[in-house]
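Support reply, case 0932

Customer input (verbatim):
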Amino acid sequence: MRIGLISDTHIMQGMPGLEELPPKVKEVFNGVDLILHAGDVFSSWVLDELEEIAPVLTARGDDDTLYLNRRVKDKHILNLEGFCLHLCHSFPFSGLYPFLYPPWNCPADLSNDFDATLDEIIHQHDNIPDIIVFGDTHMVLVHRHPRLLLINPGSPALPDHRHMPGTVAILSISAGKAETEVIQL
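Our regenerated output:
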């Protein structure tokens, strides 16, 4: 199973540089089985465009307050090929915010403190999924912990909150393995 991962599109008519989905997104997602959008879509027609490629599920972002439709929920819990996946916008465990959210963000060099804090969180919760896909930070993060795969695909048009080509990701699940590839647009 191949799943397209996208977040923080912030696409809105009249927003210079953010009026349409970057064309390469459709190229990269061609042939995926499902698309998961981790929120801050802004315009529901973006989901319509993505749904021309594959079914779409979306986590409501903190800026997604103007529309509701069948694809958008605060959180999706999915069972895919034997993996439990949570799709949300903001990372669900506040104890890790200092590692994930600016100005403290350090995804390129996650310290041992990150995994130690993650271990504590896992031991405190009974229903930890196998995979968490989230957005909000506009920064790519793929971190494999022995018990949990964390994925933030970044933003296709506003990486690090700057107008420039960004990223999406592909999650491939097969034979009991989950692999992530981040694609620079």
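We compared this against your earlier run and they match. Two observations from our side: Residues 89 and 119 are 22 Å apart (CA to CA). The chain has a mean pLDDT of 87. Please reopen the case if you see a mismatch on your end.
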